[in-house]
Design goal:
Length: about 425
Amino acid sequence: MATRIAYALLLLINSIISWLMLTPWALKKLEHLTLDYVNISCQGKQCYGYVAVQRVNWALGLFHLILSILLLGVKSSRDGRAALQNGYWGPKLIVWLAFIVLTFFIPETFFQIWGQYIALAGAMLFVLLGLILLVDLAHTWAEYCLEKIEEHDSRAWRVLLIGSTLGMFTASFAMTILMYIFFAQSGCAMNQAAITVNLIVLLIITAVSVHPTVQEYNPKAGLAQAAMVSVYCTYLTMSAVSMEPDQRHCNPLVRARGTRTASIILGAIVTMLTIAYTTTRAATQGIALNGNSSHAYSKLGDEEGEHGLVDQQPSSQREMRAEALRAAVEAGSLPANALDDSDDNEDDSDDGRGGKDDERGGTQYNYALFHVIFLLATTWVATLLTQNMDYEATGVAAVGRTYWASWVKIVSSWVCYAIYSWSLLAPVVMPGRFGN
């Protein structure tokens, strides 16, 4: 857990640095830190803004790409390369900072092409991954609650499931009402359409989730999953209309006085925190590996002429214990992973930092894919900060306050509804593939 938090903090810090690069203040401070020895410029001009954001995020993306390649095929902490994931934080931070410095020696044209094509594609993949995981979380949460209710006939779990479902539906309708009141005035066709479409699709997927045909093929489908998807998609829609520019006088939050700078700063930090959390969750829970799947136990007596009995004197007490465990596993009185438990207890059971190593039998998540998803996250941060940015703006830059960002959120909510709808209809359309 500490390792994942550390990588999330690194992404958060990198994102905040990227955000600060949208202003000339950050680069002036950087020049002052070097006693004005370093004059940061791009083709004779200060390179804050678009290119600077792309440079900083490309540096962290390269860092994660290299780690992903180095950690390919690591199945457990017994692999010496696993230390690259969980340790060497001093050298890794130095490498990250060195990459940021080196990006300022790369021609500006490279980052313009990178941001317009490659980073944009990576950002869309990251958004799609997040939507798939949200739908998966909705199903997992509801099924977990139902299992607890069936196993223990627990009133607490039943109240929790029903209460959370009602709470999420209530929040969805409350946000919809607020959006109609504050963001759907006359002349705000975009907002009116987005809010209305969200409400209609919300009602449709709720009805589909309890349709008798869907229930026949997927008995665990229900209102709980629909509620979670609905509240998330409604939140995306509300975030879209509340963060759009105020060119058409449809966003009263932009016209609010007194705390605009503070709200922009708070909104930027919250956005970066959300991205860091989403990335970490996607990289670990979404595509985790089954820790026991990497084990391969061979039965005693598989070879010709073998009888499976212990027929030689163990050379030590430790080997005697291991032979006894192997015999017990073969007899069926102990599970096969007892052999790994024995190894973990006997041989280097700590992680070298005074804590217990819980990945000797198998990693809790795929290290290589973990860093690939963090690479995609850097492309999303760069795209969010630079797409349709205002090059003439001065001072603190608002994160995501563009029509492009608003439409990404609106379309993302529609895609999320589509993914959830398919998860309900797929067993009906293709019963052969989902029969189990």
